[in-house]
């Protein structure tokens, strides 16, 4: 019985540590929306590296976004293409932080973070883009207001 107790305690500690690590990586796993009149607002906290990651959705399917004001479009790793049901369009050359690459145009029906939702968004499928994070670029950010103060990035959509 004592062995089962220690095994159970070890399992709980492992789960707790994993949850804590995920929170440090993405402190915005469950973004909360606030409505004031015709404004929807979502406040994001930076992670330990100072990046703003947030859970959201593309076409209703869950993804993790990395806010990137230097990205022209929403940039999606190629490995998410099938999961999100996206069709690659015309090939284009893009300049990234890692150099020049080929990306494929695509159109997203919707991108959402909390209650903020942007329709008909231009995006790019990027082969060889590492990881599963989607770069949330200016094709979405130009449709909303964003303000950075201290360690908080506030997104606002006027409806």
UniProtKB/TrEMBL annotation:
Residues annotated as signal peptide: none
GO terms for MF: aspartic-type endopeptidase activity
InterPro entries cross-referenced by the UniProt entry: Aspartic_peptidase_AS, Clan_AA_Asp_peptidase_C, Peptidase_aspartic_dom_sf, Retropepsin-like_bacterial
Enzyme class name: hydrolase
EC number: 3.4.23.-
Keywords, in A-Z order: Hydrolase, Protease
GO biological process, one term: proteolysis
Gene3D superfamilies given in the database record: Acid Proteases (2.40.70.10)
Protease keyword on record: yes
UniProt keyword Protease, yes or no: yes
Pfam families reported in the protein's UniProt record: gag-asp_proteas
Protein name as annotated: TIGR02281 family clan AA aspartic protease
